[in-house]
Model the fold of this input.
Amino acid sequence: MTQDELKQAVARAARDYIAANVPAGSIIGVGTGSTANFFIDELAAIKDRVCATVASSEATRKRLEGHGIEVVDLNDVTAMPVYVDGADEITENLEMVKGGGGALTREKIVAAVAGKFICVCDQSKLVATLGKFPLPVEVIPMAQAYVAREIEKLGGQPKPRAGFTTDNGNIILDVHGLAIADPAGFETALNQIVGVVTNGLFACRGADLLLLATPDGVRQVAR
Ligand code: 5RP
Done:
């Protein structure tokens, strides 16, 4: 199977999970990226069961609306049973690196409101140690040089993402050269640097359920 076929298979599995486990009329949080895009296309098939969605990026909002799926403002939402999103790396403990698409801040906010984070990945994303994929950090532009120096003190090699501005008007530093032994501790340490908006470690609040596509089927790993 190709990687896209695996992504399609896991997107279908997420759709089936929602159809079977999430009450009709619920609001669903939707992530960003190529796997999330396959999920959006599958969600369209059950859109009559879904009350509305919350989008984690402008790209996701446009794709949802393109399918005629209603997108609402997170501030108008009090309960959202699930958030479905991909990851750049994930461990068996369901800690993740996210933000390859640059949407990490809105993804983390929508995930925080959701009852359950369902991560949808193909098997290439499963790792023993996080950090080979450069860790995205969203930074207020005027703090870029300061934050980069502080990240170097923590052992990372930050590189500005060229020509990229987040949906929030900020820059991304992609941090190379990491092997993250304590994901929750490193997530917290990065958040202490003044000028950091969010970092792409999702460990303090990881996934609750991983749907992992393999050529032998979709494997479930629950917290
Ligand atoms: C976007 C993300 C994505 O979930 C992550 O980059 C995975 O993307 P893809 O499904 O395209 O591999 O965090 O900010």
Q: What stands out?
A: The CA atoms of residues 140 and 170 lie 5 Å apart. The radius of gyration is 17 Å. The chain has a mean pLDDT of 97. The first strand starts at residue 26 and ends at 30.
